[in-house]
Amino acid sequence: MSFILIYDIGKTNKKAFVFDQEYRIKWQKSTHFEEALDEDGDPCEDLHALEQWVKSTYEDARTLYPLKAVNFCTYGASLVFLDGNHKVLTPLYNYLKSYPQDLQERFYAQYGNEVAASTASPVLGSLNSGLLAYRLKYEKPKVFAFVRKILHLPNYMSFLFTQKACTDITSVGCHTKLWDFKKGDYHKWVEEEGIRHLLPALHPASEVKKGVDGLAIGIGLHDSSSALLPYLRTFKDPFVLISTGTWNITFNPFTTSILTEEELENDCLCYLRIDQKPIKAARLLAGIFHDEEVDKISMLYEVSREEVLATGFDPDWEGEELDLNDFVVRNPIQGKGRNWLEFMSYKEAYHQLISDLVALQVKSSSWVIEDIPKIFVDGGFGKNHLFMQMLRKALPDREVWTVEVPQASAIGAAMVIHEHWNEGGIPAKLITLTEG
Fold this sequence. Notes:
By secondary structure, the chain is an alpha/beta fold. The chain has helices at residues 47-64, 101-111, 114-118, 130-139, 141-144, 153-162, 169-172, 188-192, 223-234, 261-265, 286-301, 305-309, 346-365, 385-394, 408-415, and strands at residues 3-9, 14-19, 25-31, 36-37, 43-44, 67-74, 79-82, 149-152, 167-168, 179-180, 185-186, 202-203, 208-210, 216-218, 221-222, 240-244, 248-252, 268-272, 278-284, 327-328, 334-335, 374-379, 399-404, 432-434. The protein has two domains: 3-219, Nucleotidyltransferase, domain 5, CATH 3.30.420.40; 223-404, Nucleotidyltransferase, domain 5, CATH 3.30.420.
């Protein structure tokens, strides 16, 4: 029996899993760390603590199972700057860290607004992680002068095990502003600013390196691209995935079109598949909007959040159609709020809230859904019966399925290097589909 260790490094939770050949979880461990502070007093990942946990978790796993391989999927928009001795030169800056307005204006004045379209990256400040390198160059030139390698976080996790520096395409493609989607190469600004030579050579995400104890070590990949892999390996017909939670992100991994300026203005962006094909995506900060409004309904009707969330679907309910002209379907969602006390009960108020959210979701998804008939919904809203019933009603010409892939990102990271650790085939029933 063969086993693989996968690290799934999220912004909040850090997880490690051992999978067997059937992709069954045999062992797992998780933790979270208190954030550290960077030199400006802004919160950031405690990279040293993360490194120590990764190394100790590896030792724990290898004593329990005869591992053949290790791989990594992590959140994106995070860069590690190394000097010639492989020493980390800066904190792992938070992608939510505010970006200096004057520096941003300088960048766009020099390279033009077209850079957003060609790199399929809306103006997102530090979330455009390539601009973190640009910022370091101009704000801390003495530090930047010592930089010899710039690694994306998943590739740095791999580097800890192999000391071989690599770049994977999914990390480059996640709204970094580094990749020119039109020409299929780094954007010209990366070369002109003297950054390209600091980025290690691109390697396929399916590649492995020989690491500690002779194990096959994957080079790592971005968690969103990794989470799509189980679907892409299972379903041959085109589909759209709406991954829900704090963010509801609509992924279209079958698009052939480049983002338009209008799509960029409406919070659309592109990721890259492991085969370098674009994944068009639209984002909606629906989870926070939902939770805030549920809190209001709970308080006004003097019932618990749990009672509000337990509201069953009433097929006879008729609510008020949301006027999308009253909303900016961007993030955070801004618009005219409702007076929840105008309703007969908290159940009617919650029906209206979900109806409004579905209208916002359909508007957001419409930017990228194109003519694909099959829609999968996973995550929290996929388990919300009221949301799913209303979404199906709002999209009568589409097949709308609830899907469940436990630990999809981790499974994707194991799948991408399947041939290097697993002599069997990929199991057929990794994904649970529910309609109705």
